[in-house]
Amino acid sequence: MKLQITCPECNRQSLIDSGKVPLGKIKTNCNTCRKQFFIDKGQNVNCCLVQPSADSASEAEQGSWKIDRPEFEGIEYDLNGLGGLIRSGMVTGGTRVLAPNANQYREASKVKELRKFFEQKEKRDG
């Protein structure tokens, strides 16, 4: 089962493995608008359990990215989700990430697939 999280500010939706989210009230940030908000999967606050569709199954085959920092432990991101963290500054060039199907963590700035997100952040921050 997946947990669909919806930002109450911009309505961006994202999916995460429901088993990786504990019961109870949890503070999170939207990767799009950066608004902080709470989710509670036991009470369906800003989230709900969903069955993955065939489309999300093909996305899962593309793999998930992991971030080597305690606050991101146990959470996997798709490429766009990780890009949002880069653009928001939560993930920096020196942050170590594990690409799908990779055997070891590398600095995010040295991963080809992530360069465009660092370029977008640099353009925006000017």
Task: Report on the architecture of this protein.
The protein has 126 residues and is α+β, with helices and mostly antiparallel strands. It has helices at 54-61, 79-88, 115-125; strands at residues 2-6, 13-17, 25-29, 36-40, 47-50, 66-67, 96-98, 106-107. It has two domains: 1-61, no CATH class; 63-126. The strands form three sheets. It has a three-stranded antiparallel sheet, with no helix packed on it. A three-stranded antiparallel sheet has the order 6-7-8, with no helix packed on it. Strand 1 and strand 2 form a beta hairpin. It is globular and about 40 Å long. It starts with a strand and ends with a helix.
Layout of strands and helices, then pairs:
Layout: E1 2-6, E2 13-17, E3 25-29, E4 36-40, E5 47-50, H1 54-61, E6 66-67, H2 79-88, E7 96-98, E8 106-107, H3 115-125
Antiparallel strand pairs: 1-2, 1-5, 3-4, 6-7, 7-8
With strands numbered from the N-terminus, the spatial order across the biggest sheet is 2-1-5
Question: How many domains is the backbone divided into?
Answer: 2
Task: Name the helicity range.
Answer: 10-25%
Largest sheet: 3 strands, antiparallel
Strand element count: 8
Give the averaged pLDDT, no decimals: 84
Computed CA radius of gyration, to the nearest angstrom: 15 Å
Kindly report how far apart the N and C termini lie: 41 Å
Q: Proportion of β residues? A: 15-25%
How does the helix and strand content classify structurally?
Answer: alpha+beta
Annotation field: number of helices = 3
Uncertain segments of ≥5 residues (pLDDT<50)?
A: 56-61
| N to C succession of SSEs | EEEEEHEHEEH
Q: Shape from CA axes?
A: globular
